[in-house]
């Protein structure tokens, strides 16, 4: 099976990525010049005259760091840097972090630098591994800027303090915030980051401690700035993340939760205009989330994608069985037209989600969750009307096939839920047979050839769905046909009084 991340990057895309790299590099060099001018408004020309080689060294080091970051993504995630805006996003986050840290370090205190901000933003925008490499490059970048410019001419040891704070606090932040699910939890993370921040500040200050003339006020101030810098990292990350989420249409755990809230506009439309589809989507979302957890996939993404996978039915909700209340419009249509209406909901969903600026990862699932499967009911109807001459391609979804494990999960969960809902015997044995049939049919039709899902994962998904569907469609006892009213209640209370 193919893995999208392993595909090569085209020459045009590579060229665009390199252009974004050069533009970002020029921006950071211009930022460095601005820092030098701000640091010494009257003597910056002398700095460039006397320290031209130092500045050139800084430019070369920055270029090397930018190149290292680009090649990391080139070898680890070609699909990501195949889009120029993703390359620009990486370097833009890096540049903003440098400027923010410079501002607080220059005008307040080096200990107040929000050194963990980049790590937190990188964690939620790109993932844990990418956040670690970003923080590594950022720490060295700040070290280069502090060393080769006039940031800390009066206190050379400050550059080592900055390096240690950036690397240690940022790395610690990546692991502490790995399981954060809400923005409030992220803010609390900043408080916890204050503990290692405080320890690092105190340890660094001990190297310059003068016991003969001890003054505790500067040390308390430094410790306070160290704690505040970590809290500030979380606060700034909270403020900046939504900007990147919307501007670059990036998925974070926070945005996924917002997209699945009851107030999401498209979900409100789905609930009011296509209630049957909405209820079906809720069950599929529950199933998909459970399956994603079972195979260690992104459960938040699976749930959100399942909520929106059938949103294309909003175009003609009355044409789908779950929204019909007796009258079936397909009774008056030809099989060809009916099949065209049914299969179009996949592309309609994709178009609607893109038009409403939802992430492409969710829109792709809406288009892929039926793959290129045939629409059995109308193909069979056409065969009966034509004497077996119907072309199956005219009665099949247009694809593409699932390209991610999440899309494959939703394809299986969607069909399994619909199939088990239509039967009366929902015992584990019967449900297992239906789910196994759903998966085997899709394997026979080569529906998983474009995603890297394994046989072991399909087996886990099957068993998870069997357990879940047996619970969702459980049997209830038959209640006695007795209707109570107020008279029964009054007689009961009177009999109690007599006792």
Question: What's a concise summary of this model?
Answer:
The chain has 499 residues and is mostly helical. The chain is 69% helix and 0% strand.
Keywords:
499 residues, mainly alpha, Arp2/3 complex 21 kDa subunit ARPC3, Hypothetical protein af1432, 2 domains, 21 helices, 69% helix, elongated, disordered N terminus
Query: Could you give a short account of the major beta sheet?
Result: none
Number of helices: 21
CATH architecture of the largest domain: Orthogonal Bundle
DSSP strand count: 0
Please bin the fraction of helical residues: 55-70%
Q: pLDDT below 50 for ≥5 consecutive residues: which ranges? A: 1-6
Q: What's the helix and strand layout?
A:
Layout: H1 11-39, H2 44-50, H3 52-76, H4 78-81, H5 84-107, H6 117-125, H7 128-148, H8 158-176, H9 183-206, H10 216-247, H11 253-259, H12 265-273, H13 275-294, H14 299-308, H15 335-355, H16 360-368, H17 376-386, H18 405-421, H19 428-444, H20 455-472, H21 486-498
Helix pairs in contact: 1-3, 1-5, 3-7, 5-6, 5-7, 6-7, 6-8, 6-10, 7-8, 8-9, 9-10, 12-13, 13-14, 13-18, 13-20, 14-16, 14-18, 15-16, 15-17, 16-18, 18-19, 19-20
Provide an overview of this structure.
With 499 residues, the protein is mostly helical. The protein has 2 domains: 4-250, Orthogonal Bundle (Arp2/3 complex 21 kDa subunit ARPC3), CATH 1.10.1760; 260-472, Hypothetical protein af1432 (Orthogonal Bundle), CATH 1.10.3210. 69% of the residues lie in helices and 0% in strands. The protein has helices spanning 11-39, 44-50, 52-76, 78-81, 84-107, 117-125, 128-148, 158-176, 183-206, 216-247, 253-259, 265-273, 275-294, 299-308, 335-355, 360-368, 376-386, 405-421, 428-444, 455-472, 486-498. Mean pLDDT is 87; it is low at 1-6.
């Amino acid at each position: 099976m193919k893995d999208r991340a392993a595909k090569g990057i085209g020459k045009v895309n590579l060229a665009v990525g390199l252009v974004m790299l050069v533009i970002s590099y020029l921006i950071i060099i211009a930022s460095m010049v601005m820092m030098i001018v701000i640091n010494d408004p009257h003597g910056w020309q002398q700095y460039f005259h006397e320290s031209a080689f130092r500045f050139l060294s800084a430019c070369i080091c920055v270029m090397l760091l930018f190149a290292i970051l680009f090649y990391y993504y080139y070898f680890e995630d070609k699909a990501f840097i195949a889009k120029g805006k993703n390359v620009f996003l990486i370097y833009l986050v890096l540049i903003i972090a440098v400027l923010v840290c410079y501002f607080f370090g220059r005008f307040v205190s080096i200990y107040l630098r929000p050194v963990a901000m980049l790590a937190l933003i990188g964690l939620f925008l790109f993932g844990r591994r990418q956040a670690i490499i970003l923080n590594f490059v950022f720490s060295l970048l700040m070290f280069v800027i502090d060393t080769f410019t006039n940031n800390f001419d009066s206190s050379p040891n400050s550059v080592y303090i900055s390096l240690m704070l950036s690397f240690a606090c940022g790395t610690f932040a990546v692991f502490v915030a790995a399981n954060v699910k809400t923005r409030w939890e992220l803010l609390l993370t900043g408080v916890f980051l204050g503990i290692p921040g405080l320890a690092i500040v105190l340890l660094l200050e001990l190297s310059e401690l003068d016991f003969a003339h001890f003054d505790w006020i500067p040390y308390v101030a430094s410790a306070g700035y160290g704690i505040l810098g970590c809290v500030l990292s979380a606060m700034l990350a909270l403020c900046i993340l939504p900007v990147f989420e919307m501007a670059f249409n990036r998925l974070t755990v926070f945005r996924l939760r917002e997209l699945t809230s009851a107030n999401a506009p498209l979900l409100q439309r789905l609930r009011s205009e296509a209630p049957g589809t909405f209820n079906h989507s809720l069950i599929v979302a529950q199933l998909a989330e459970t399956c994603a957890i079972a195979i260690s996939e992104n459960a938040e993404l699976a749930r959100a994608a399942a909520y929106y996978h059938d949103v294309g039915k909003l175009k003609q909700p009355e044409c789908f069985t779950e929204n019909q209340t007796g009258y079936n419009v397909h009774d008056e249509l030809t099989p060809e037209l009916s099949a065209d209406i049914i299969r179009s909901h996949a592309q309609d969903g994709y178009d609607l989600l893109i038009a409403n600026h939802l992430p492409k990862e969710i829109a792709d699932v809406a288009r892929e969750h039926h793959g290129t499967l045939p629409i059995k009911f109308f193909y069979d109807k056409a065969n009966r009307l034509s004497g077996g001459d119907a072309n199956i391609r005219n009665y099949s979804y247009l694809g593409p096939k699932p390209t991610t494990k999440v899309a494959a999960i939703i394809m299986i969960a969607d069909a399994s839920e619909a199939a088990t809902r239509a039967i009366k015997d929902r015992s584990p044995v019967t449900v297992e047979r239906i789910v196994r049939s759903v998966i085997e049919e899709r394997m026979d039709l080569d529906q998983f050839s474009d995603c890297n899902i394994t046989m072991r994962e399909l087996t886990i998904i099957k068993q998870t769905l069997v357990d879940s569907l047996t619970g969702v469609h459980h049997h209830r006892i038959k209640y006695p046909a007795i209707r109570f009213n107020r008279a029964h209640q009054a007689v009961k209370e009177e009999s109690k009084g007599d006792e």
